Amino acid sequence: MITHELMLLYRVMPKPELVTTLKRTAETLFSRGGIIRKLENLGTRDIPFKISAHGVVYKQASYYVFTFNVPPIAIKDLLDEFERDVDIIRRKIFKQNSPEFKECTLHEELQPAPYRKSVQELIAQARKLDKPKFNYNTGLDYYPFQK
Fold first, then answer.
1. Which GO cellular component does the record give, naming just one (predicted)?
2. Per-residue pLDDT tens over the stretch 102-118
3. Phi, psi for residue 129 in degrees, rounded to 5
4. What is the C-alpha separation between 23 and 17, in angstroms, rounded?
5. Rounded to an integer, what distance in angstroms lies between the CA atom of residue 47 and that of residue 58?
6. In a domain, 110, yes or no
7. Domain CATH number, residue 56
8. How high is the pLDDT of residue 138?
C-alpha cells in the first residue's frame, strides 16, 4: 500500500478532550482499512492567519501528523469524514515520497576541482560554446590587413 501523511489542525482543547479526539481520528483510519505507522505531535502554536471553521474563527491550533497506509479508494471518504468533525480545523492528506538512494561521492569530492568528473563535464560543455578561430591558410596566426 501507499504511505500517506495526514496533517491535522485541531482546535485548542484540554488534554482529555484532545485524547478522545485523537482516538476518534485513529478509529476512523482503522475503520477504512488503514494502518497507522506514526503519530507525531508538532505542538500548539499560532496559526499564520485566522481560519474560520464550523462557524468559529481560530487563531491557535494543535498540529498533528499521522503517517498511515490506506487503500487509495478510502482517501476521499477520510477527507469527507474529517471535514464533518467539529474539532478539526484543517486537514490535508499527502502522498509520502519514498526516499531515493544517493550514491556516496565523498572520495570524488575530496579531489581537486579540475580532476572531478562533474567539473570536467562542465569544461567540455564550455569548450563547445567557444567560437572557432578563422583560418586564412596563410600560415600567419593573425590577419595582416586589419588596422
1. mitochondrial small ribosomal subunit
2. 888 888 888 898 898 88
3. -85, -10
4. 10
5. 8
6. no
7. 3.30.70.60
8. 65
